[in-house]
Amino acid sequence: MPVVAASLMGMRRKVKERNEDDSSRQSSQSSSSQPSKFQWIADTMKQEQVKKLYQNATVQWAIAGLIMGNFATNIVEKQIDPWNLKYAPEWKIIETVWNIIFIIELLWNMYGSWYMSTLKGHFLCSGWNLFDLLVVSISVPSLTGADLGAFSQMRMLRAFRVFRLFKRIKSLNKIITSLGRAVPGIVNAGMVQLLVMCIYAILAVDLFGDFALDGQYTNIEKNNVSLITTRGMSFGDEYYGNFFRSLYTLFQVLTGESWSEAVARPLIFQDGAFPYVAGIYYVSYIIICGIVLVNVAVAVLLEKMVDPEEPMDVEKGLALKDMPEHARVLLEPFRRRRRRRHLEGGAHARGGAPQARKRRLERERQRGGVQHHREAQRDAARDEGGDPQRDEATADRV
Predict the structure, then answer these.
(1) Contact assessment for residue 268 and residue 279, using Cβ atoms and an 8 Å cutoff
(2) Structural domain boundaries, residue 128
(3) All residues at 6 or more sequence positions from 389 whose CB lies less than 8 Å from its CB, including other chains
(4) Same domain membership, residue 49 and residue 160
(5) Are residues 149 and 195 in the same domain?
(6) Last residue of a domain, which of 123, 142, 168?
């Protein structure tokens, strides 16, 4: 009997805890679903409808077509009139038209995504939106005709408008997203490769720095061969004269740009036993840096492209701590107000009005007193040898 009673009490406790969890979850959902202070502004401005229209697939493909058209215009301009000497007025008109189009597109995006009622999906929370804002803002001074002096060179950033395609075409966006997620792994692989290259560069200065200092060397056939570079320097001094020259030479070896003929063969075809050292040096370097470590970076990229992206919880949205710093500064007051309303709504849902809370506590005390009275009667009947169930039924009738 004690075991059965204990199990029943445990089941009651679990049921009670489950009910409390459900009630707290419902209260939090009801409080979070309450309209915010600025919801009427968002409804009046019809931000949700504007954003849905902007994110329509047809609209996004049309914007992508405009971006490609602007990119093609830049290519044609730099091909037929690179210095704006032949068709300067025409290029000015074309540039003004493109700038107006992209300013209207940016204002459309800002109008639909600059939420007044929630933090989720805010314009400032998207890195692509900030990139659009930067690229379009650069073209504004050209519309006003302002003379920016040295800052006028920033107009060259207009060529980066084509990167806005990565935001709208999912296949391109996946590549850029994978590259971003692979940055930590690529940086680690790059650091390992750089350390190995530095080790080989130090060895190369000691091994090859004084090679053919007098402008000639003796080959395997005992002939003296002149070895002066096109810059009038000796071979060893130009390619391995100090650490940075040696490091750059090893970088040239990795690119494959005439490294074997210009860099390695003079060392391998010299007289004596030293060519074996040079051969082992370059073969080991190519295997370690040119094959193994380069493929490590490729493997990191492939892993991030194959791995599925972590889905974002739609109900939870983007956490404020994960936003850029400028977005946190601007949106912190809204978060505080939402948090305060959430706490007030949750307290109201749990406790209700003061009078209702008092009545609920009084009913709980009464139920507790009746239960205590029944337990006392069962204990007394058990001590006297009576039937506890019959006495409990009698107490219920009373």
Answers:
(1) yes
(2) 39-168
(3) none
(4) yes
(5) no
(6) 168
Q: What is the pLDDT of residues 210-246, one digit of tens each?
A: 898 888 999 888 888 888 888 889 999 999 999 999 9
Residue 121 token pair: 């999906």
What tens digit of pLDDT does each residue of 156-187 get? 777 787 888 887 888 888 888 888 888 889 99
CB 211 within 8 A of CB 217: yes
- Judge residue 140's burial from the number of C-beta atoms within 10 Å of its C-beta, 0-12 exposed, 13-18 middle, 19 or more buried: exposed
pLDDT in tens, 297-327: 889 888 887 776 554 443 344 555 555 565 5
Residues 50 and 98 in one domain: yes
Which of 119-123, 131-135, 393-397 shows the lowest per-residue confidence on average (mean pLDDT)? 393-397
Half-sphere exposure in the Cβ direction for 20 (13 Å, CA): 7
Angle at 107 between CA 330 and CA 128, to 5 degrees: 65
pTM of the model: 0.57
pLDDT value, residue 278: 93
Nearest to 145 by CA among 99, 188, 102, 109: 99
